[in-house]
Design a protein that fits this description.
Layout: E1 2-6, E2 14-15, E3 18-19, H1 21-37, E4 42-46, H2 57-73, E5 77-80, H3 87-90, H4 94-98, E6 102-105, E7 115-119, E8 122-129, H5 134-141, H6 148-164, E9 171-177, E10 179-180, E11 199-200, E12 210-214, E13 220-223, E14 226-228, E15 245-251, E16 257-263, E17 270-275, H7 277-282, E18 293-298, H8 307-314, E19 318-323, H9 336-340, H10 345-357, H11 363-386
Parallel strand pairs: 1-4, 4-5, 5-6, 8-9, 9-12, 10-11, 12-14, 17-18, 18-19
Antiparallel strand pairs: 1-15, 2-3, 7-8, 13-14, 15-16
Helix pairs in contact: 1-2, 5-6, 10-11
Length: 387
């Protein structure tokens, strides 16, 4: 059986305030084309279909379009809810939608109830384990300690119990949304540590043929049978080095796994550049990044004037500007109190300007600071007289 494993669509998400809806629609088209052209037997989507619990209408419309196009192909699709999704909202109409071959698994109580498909070699059981927030599901799984490992282990016990009762040779696929030990995180994933230690060992999933993971946005192989597809699009500059893709997985008659990466369309490359502003504007080696989405880190010791305007003249798609001035380190043996000793309010304020900007205030700025302090002192004097 041939599976197409994807996850973390995050429909409705923007990239530094740039709408990604068009790129997400292009990905859906690519997914449908891949299913048709590569003879895919089943699609698995391992959570975070939406970017937030109440998605914008445009995201819901795109999801609806994806469901219709997948159903028209006649290829069964399994989806679970992730930590960004509202499980209740995503699961509305699941029974009716299931009749069209789109199987939504959002209820923790259904972890041990698979969708069973059949190929020339027999049955393949697909178990959907939606994101399991420990504090919310500990009673369902009767665990004493509300932790990610405990609730996932209990859910997998249900999976293995159901699998053991099935015909010998039944192959198995588990969809789950979790942080598995050994995975590499990026900046765009929402923290799931609330409710217990986030990472769970891959051994929790022993006994099944393939585990289709969601949550981490980089495509990763934890073991040959346990993999993250990653997100189809980059959602932070920490993903600049990612190759966005899906897994095309073949399960043979014995349940052995062969996996191939299928690249996703890239709407615009990402680039992280770093250095003094003048060097970034003049460096010929940066020419390939002129059409990329850019995060620029300026290392000028003194913050330059109008840096974003000047950067966008060469890099028109600059979206993020970071200041990391390279300066001589301050004397570590001098305490904060020591640095303030015997200094006036005016001097302390001027030192702060110097620390933040890299250069002290000019005469006009000094006068503005002086006037501000004088006004505060005058106000305090009036208050004292009024008492």
């Amino acid at each position: 059986m041939r599976l197409l494993h994807t996850s973390d669509w995050h429909l409705g998400r923007a990239f530094h305030r740039v709408s990604m809806l068009g790129a997400q629609a292009e990905f859906i088209g690519h997914l449908v084309t891949t299913v048709r052209e590569r003879d895919v037997d089943a699609v698995v989507v391992s959570g975070d279909v939406y970017d937030r619990a109440v998605p914008p209408l445009t995201a819901v419309e795109l999801f609806d379009d994806a469901l219709h196009r997948l159903a028209d192909l006649g290829v069964p699709t399994m989806m679970i809810s992730g930590n960004h999704d509202s499980a209740r909202r995503l699961g509305v109409g699941a029974g009716l939608i299931g009749r069209a071959g789109i199987h939504l698994r959002t209820e923790p109580s259904a972890c041990g109830t698979p969708v069973v498909l059949r190929d020339a070699f027999g049955d393949v059981a697909f178990y959907g384990l939606p994101y399991l927030e420990p504090a919310l599901v500990k009673d369902e799984f009767q665990v004493e300690r509300a932790g990610h490992e405990a609730v996932l282990a209990a859910a997998m016990e249900r999976v293995r119990a159901d699998l053991a009762a099935r015909a010998r040779g039944t192959r198995s696929v588990v969809l789950t949304h979790a942080f598995v030990t050994g995975g590499q995180a990026s900046d765009s994933e929402r923290d799931i540590t609330v409710g217990g230690v986030a990472a769970v060992p891959s051994g929790v999933f022993d006994g099944v043929d393939y585990v289709a993971l969601g949550h981490l946005h980089g495509c990763q192989t934890i073991t040959e049978r346990v993999r993250y597809s990653g997100s189809p699009l980059a959602y932070s500059f920490s993903e600049a080095g990612h190759r966005k893709s899906m897994w095309l997985v073949d399960l043979d008659a014995e349940g052995s796994v062969t996996a191939e990466r299928v690249d996703c369309p890239v709407p615009r490359p990402l680039a992280r550049i770093r250095g003094p502003l003048e060097e970034l504007l003049a460096d010929a080696a940066l020419a390939p990044h002129e059409e990329a989405w850019v995060e620029a880190t300026l290392t000028d010791p003194v913050r330059p004037a109008d840096p974003m305007a000047r950067l966008t003249e060469r890099f028109p798609h600059t979206l993020s500007l970071v200041f990391a001035p390279e300066r001589a380190p301050e004397e570590p043996t001098v305490s904060y109190a020591g640095r303030l000793a015997d200094r006036s309010d005016q001097q302390i304020a001027e030192d702060f300007v110097t620390h933040v900007r890299g250069a002290g205030p000019d005469e006009h700025e000094q006068a503005v600071l002086r006037e501000a302090f004088d006004a505060v002192r005058a106000d305090q004097a009036v208050r004292e007289m009024a008492r």
